[in-house]
Write a structure and sequence with these properties.
The protein is mainly alpha-helical. The protein contains 5 helices and 2 strands; from the N terminus they run E-H-E-H-H-H-H. It has 2 domains: about 40 residues, no CATH class; about 60 residues, no CATH class. Helices cover about 55% and strands about 5% of the residues. Strand 1, helix 1 and strand 2 form a beta-alpha-beta unit. The radius of gyration is 19 Å and the shape is elongated.
Length: about 110
Amino acid sequence: MKPYVINVDKNEAYPCAISKLQAARDLSNRCKLRQVKYLNNGIEQDYRFVKRMCSYKQWFRKLVCTKNTIDGFEVMHMIKKCQVKRVSKYDIIAQNNFIGNLLQEAA
């Protein structure tokens, strides 16, 4: 499914990149580019912890390892933000069970 609106900041490279994608037919010509300085801040702020955690972990050699590590960071962040039903951020046993079940399903 191709996007119909792309929200970005005011970087000058975005219009050129969008034009090239539309010319190559990788992006629909109907797709609109919205350049608003602070429109994507909610998304940017939500993953800043991942950027902070990964900035000093430069040992990633394989995409699979990188994906698994970032997925682990995301799960821990979701628990911390109380986004997981039936798992309190203060209930360590429930957190361990939840993470154990996720890892068993992934294996």
